[in-house]
Structures are given as structure tokens and as C-alpha cells.
């Protein structure tokens, strides 16, 4: 987009329909969308205009020549098509350790800010982090208000301990950190073993968010991650004071919507867990070993039945002879 009286300024318009997790009333939803341009934070990408109706939302932001964190990782040009940018990278290479530390710390700072405000996010991934010089700025805060599904939902819906939006953000941060470190997403999650990294401090954070143990036992808090050696010594130089005033009535509406989103996630995880148990049971009973066991049991039962029938027949024959005498 371009502004008529400022033709050199380029803007990006994004528009989206409502998703399955939209639990806000139409009035609260529209009020919260219109609040987004008032959100000022050094690590949130500014919304210049936002509006909504009962079925969708429209937002305008400044176009950024540098592109997203994913563009940096894949050494891609922001305006190139998606497939060209990400589906066949010429060279898979992670970022330098200092970049990993700085960008990771900035993302964690803004997640903590949103969690403290009671604002649900759940949409962290490398394409939702805009780069502005050496600064990361989070995109698409509106996605949770719209009720859109998370990019990594198919991963965390497998693990029943990842059942709050805060723990979802931490798990998604693990995916982001992996991609920053190795230049590509993990092949599967949970991750059994991590390739060599620029520092063991990176592996420690990855293990706390993507390992089997972490997925089974639950995620650390954002505050806990900020205290880990990888991020604790990062010096942030920004002087911009965060501002995001949400009226009390809308905070309550956000709290209720967040609980509804988490409740639907827990129900989905429960169904997946039950389906897995059923599949395992069917697989177990259908295995060659189990079929052999059942055949052996059937033969034994058949022999036992034959012996019992023979004994019964002999007893009847003996009784009939006795009564004849």
C-alpha cells in the first residue's frame, strides 16, 4: 500500500477472518483490535491502523525492507515468493551466538510483557518476528483475538502438560531457538538429541523446551528462561518505555477468552491421548506375536474342551451302564 500524500512510504495491509478460538464478544473484539495501535513496546512491531467487524479484522503496518527473522535465517529477500524463500535453501546455517542471545532475550522480554498484561499470544514463530536493525519486533498480536490456530499447534497438542498459553509460548520459543541455532526447524518433536551448538548454554535452553522430559513434565516459565546463562548476561540498550493500557473490563474479557482457548486445547489433547491409547491397543492385539499367543491359547482351550467333553461322555456312559445293572 501507499499513502497518497506520501508516495515513498510503503505499507503492508493484512486481513484475516475469525478462527475457531474466537471467544470474545463482537464488541470486546472490536475494541481490543482498535487498541493495538496504542501498544508501544521496543520489541513489538507497531500497528499504524486497525479496525474490525463481526467476522474479520484489517491491520496496516509499515513495510520493512529487512524482512523477518526467518528471512535472515534463510538469507531470503522479503518480497520473494514463499516457496523460493524457504523450501529449498542453498545453505543451511544458523545465526551467530551473539545474535541468538540478543534476539532470544528480546523475544522473551516481550513475551513476559504480554503475559504480565494478561494478553494471550500463542503465535510465536520465525516469520512473526520482524527485524529492525539489531532489534526483533513481534508481529500479529491480533491472531489470538481473532482466534486463529497456532503455527505449532500440531506439535504442542500432542503433549498434555503444555496446556496454558504461557507454556505454549515457551514451547514455540524452543522451536524458534532451534531454527536460529541450526538454520532449520527440528525434524520432529520431542527432540531426542541435539546436534553440536555454538554453546552448551543454547542446548540447555533447547532441552528445557523441546526434549522428551520437557514435553512430558511441562515447560519452564519465561522468567525462568530469562535467568538461564544464555540470556541472563545480555545487555538491552533500549530506552523506550513499554505502554499498553487495557481497560479493566477488557482485561476480564481477555481472561475469560484465554480460559476458553485453553479449555479447548485440553479437550483436544485428551481426545488425541485417548485415540493414541486405542491405536496402541489395536496395534498390540493385531501384532504377529499376539496372534500367535491367541492361537496357542485357542488350541489349549480346544484341547481342554475336548478332554472335558470326553470325560463327561465317559461319565454318562458309566452312569447308564450302572442304571442298567
Automatic annotation (TrEMBL):
UniProt KW keywords: Cytoplasm
One GO MF term: phosphatidylinositol binding
SUPFAM superfamilies per UniProt: Protein kinase-like (PK-like) (SSF56112)
Predominant place of localization: cytoplasm
Residue intervals passing through the bilayer: none
Comp. bias regions, Polar residues: 316-325
Highest taxon listed in the record's lineage: Eukaryota
Residue ranges of every copy of the Protein kinase domain listed in the record: 1-316
Residues covered by region (Disordered): 272-325
UniProt feature, compositional bias: Basic residues: 272-283, 292-304
PANTHER family assigned: PX DOMAIN-CONTAINING PROTEIN KINASE-LIKE PROTEIN (PTHR22999:SF40), PX SERINE/THREONINE KINASE PXK (PTHR22999)
Name used for this protein in its record: PXK
Organism per entry: Cervus elaphus hippelaphus
Amino acid at each position: 500500500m501507499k499513502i497518497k500524500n506520501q508516495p515513498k512510504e510503503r505499507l503492508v495491509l493484512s486481513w484475516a477472518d475469525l478462527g475457531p478460538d474466537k471467544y470474545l464478544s463482537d464488541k470486546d473484539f472490536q475494541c481490543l483490535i482498535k487498541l493495538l495501535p496504542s501498544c508501544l513496546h521496543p520489541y513489538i512491531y507497531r500497528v499504524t491502523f486497525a479496525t474490525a467487524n463481526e467476522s474479520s479484522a484489517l491491520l496496516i503496518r509499515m513495510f520493512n525492507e529487512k524482512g523477518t527473522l526467518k528471512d535472515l535465517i534463510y538469507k531470503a529477500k522479503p518480497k520473494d515468493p514463499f516457496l523460493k524463500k524457504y523450501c529449498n535453501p542453498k545453505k543451511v546455517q544458523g545465526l551467530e551466538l551473539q545474535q541468538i542471545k540478543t534476539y532470544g532475550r528480546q523475544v522473551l522480554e516481550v513475551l513476559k510483557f504480554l503475559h504480565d498484561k494478561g494478553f494471550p499470544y500463542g503465535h510465536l514463530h520465525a516469520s512473526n518476528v520482524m527485524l529492525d536493525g539489531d532489534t526483533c519486533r513481534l508481529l500479529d498480536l491480533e491472531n489470538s483475538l481473532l482466534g486463529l490456530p497456532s503455527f505449532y499447534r500440531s506439535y504442542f497438542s500432542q503433549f498434555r502438560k503444555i496446556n496454558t498459553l504461557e507454556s505454549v509460548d515457551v514451547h514455540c520459543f524452543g522451536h524458534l531457538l532451534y531454527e536460529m541455532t541450526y538454520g532449520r526447524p527440528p525434524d520432529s518433536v520431542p527432540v531426542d538429541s541435539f546436534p553440536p551448538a555454538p554453546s552448551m548454554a543454547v542446548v540447555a535452553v533447547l532441552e528445557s523446551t523441546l526434549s522428551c522430559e520437557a514435553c512430558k513434565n511441562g515447560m519452564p516459565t519465561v522468567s525462568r528462561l530469562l535467568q538461564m546463562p544464555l540470556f541472563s548476561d545480555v545487555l538491552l540498550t533500549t530506552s523506550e518505555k513499554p505502554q499498553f493500557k487495557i481497560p479493566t473490563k477488557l482485561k476480564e474479557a481477555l481472561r475469560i477468552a484465554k480460559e476458553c482457548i485453553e479449555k479447548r486445547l485440553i479437550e483436544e489433547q485428551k481426545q488425541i491421548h485417548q485415540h493414541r491409547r486405542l491405536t496402541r491397543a489395536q496395534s498390540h492385539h493385531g501384532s504377529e506375536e499376539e496372534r500367535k499367543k491367541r492361537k496357542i491359547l485357542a488350541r489349549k482351550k480346544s484341547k481342554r474342551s475336548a478332554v472335558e467333553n470326553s470325560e463327561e461322555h465317559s461319565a454318562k456312559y458309566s452312569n447308564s451302564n450302572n442304571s442298567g445293572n
